[in-house]
Amino acid sequence: MKSYDKLFIGGRWVAPAKNGCFETIDPCSEEVIAQVAAATAEDVDLAVAAARHAFDEGPWPRMSGVQRGAVLRRIGKGIRARLDELAKLEVRDNGKPLPEALWDLGDAAGCFEYYAGLAERLDAHTETPVALSDDRFSSIARKEPVGVAGAIIPWNFPMLMAAWKVAPALAAGCTMVLKPSELTPLTALELADIAAAAELPAGVLNVITGLGPDAGAPLSEHPGIDKLAFTGSVPTGSRIMQAAARDIKNVSLELGGKSPFIVFDDSDIDAAVEWIMFGIFWNQGEVCSATSRVLVQRGIYDRLVTRLEEETRKITIGNGLDEGVLLGPLVSRGQYDKVRAAVARGREEGARLVTGGERPAHLDRGYFMTPVVFADVPEQSWIWQEEVFGPVVCIRPFEDEAEAVRSANDSRFGLAAAVMSRDMARCERVARRLRAGIVWINCSQPTFTEAPWGGYKQSGIGRELGEWGLNNYLEVKQITRYESDKPWAWYMKSR
Ligand code: NAI
Ligand code: MG
């Protein structure tokens, strides 16, 4: 394994100030795969200074969108050129099955290409006239990059989460400091190399690896940062928002969820089972938008739970690099313990464990757990209300549409929701009543770079992806001009 003991600051690989390292682990073998540079506050200072200098003095914010777009396209191409190698690295660091890692990496490249297009279009839309009620004045609204962005990202989709923040920030003309999760830091460091090879000017993208309290906290508190973009847990999101409050930093947060999936009894049971499984077992259920709370109408409840059990038991678990594997290990020992504790708690609370929650018989190491189906889950239980972030689905029956909508909305989260029925009018009606930022009809989880992504309630603030993602990194300036030949003459009345 190559070495990952340096930070990428100001266009160069530099040793961390304290020369510290932390280990990143392959969750399948439980072996250390690399020693990774551990940034501390001093490194954060250097990285922010490099980004600040690149923003204030460098070419990047002053280039045309077309010029920035060309660099973004080269980054996309650079990812595609190394797709297999990067996907395998992601599997080793995170555990996910290789086909899913390939999918993530392709989407990450696609994200850079998409924002290349928006950067190119920005040139024609940077300044737009504003119609005023007083024709002595004229005004325009002008989009400008927000400045230096600090991006802190999680471990579930390491490269893709980096792309969701880096691509729009760069398209907007921002410079940035990116801190990946200490559990999966490797592909972000590779992204730094790819960006440099794509001729991104020095200091525009700085990548610092390190622990949350040692590197993430000083980044979120740094006065040189204009904007913070975070994806991760609610408690950390709250801490970041508090840090941002002191200097009134612009913040966007994409946090957790406990997203509902409503299945009406006119649905095709096999189609429902397929989407329910994709909604919660994809990426080991370590997905912020996972539809982990399933509401099934009484008429098909028993049959659906039985079919779901049969299919869940067939899921192939193992090393993400092995052919045919659909479920890899959980990301870390900590996450494994957390999910196991959640399953135990669900049983204590009276949820019926239909299947799963065990170590697969053929795997004696690695953070593996058989996928879990809980039925008849009490509505006020912890397991029904709180995010597990693992392959654990909770199911409850409902009688009618009003009950389904009420129960689905009974949550402090509001990231995603799904509804399934053959009655399209009903699906459309329910979709409009669900308090969530993303609603899927007759499916769960498909994600498109073009469409807005983000949560209601405690699931976050702001929207990523699409044009909304670009606006996240833009300020809007009003420039207003006095057009009249007549003197204003308020104080100095014309005599
Ligand atoms: P976390 O939210 O603590 O970590 C996410 C990122 O924040 C990492 O880069 C981490 O280094 C950084 N961070 C941690 N403490 C920080 C601080 N004080 N200041 C600034 N940055 C800090 O998530 P963690 O600990 O990896 O996972 C805990 C739980 O969070 C999971 O079990 C899961 O429930 C949830 N989670 C949700 C995600 C989502 O996409 N919504 C993603 C990852 C985790
Ligand atoms: Mg790892």
TrEMBL record:
Residues 13-479 form the Aldehyde dehydrogenase domain. The active site is at E254. Keywords: NAD, Oxidoreductase. One of its GO terms (molecular function) is oxidoreductase activity, acting on the aldehyde or oxo group of donors, NAD or NADP as acceptor. Pathway: Amine and polyamine biosynthesis; betaine biosynthesis via choline pathway; betaine from betaine aldehyde: step 1/1. It comes from the Bacteria. CDD domains: ALDH_F10_BADH. The keyword Oxidoreductase applies. SUPFAM superfamilies: ALDH-like (SSF53720). InterPro entries: Ald_DH/histidinol_DH, Ald_DH_C, Ald_DH_CS_CYS, Ald_DH_CS_GLU, Ald_DH_N, Aldehyde_DH_dom. PANTHER family: BETAINE ALDEHYDE DEHYDROGENASE, BETAINE ALDEHYDE DEHYDROGENASE-RELATED. Belongs to the aldehyde dehydrogenase family. This is Aldehyde dehydrogenase. It comes from Caballeronia cordobensis.
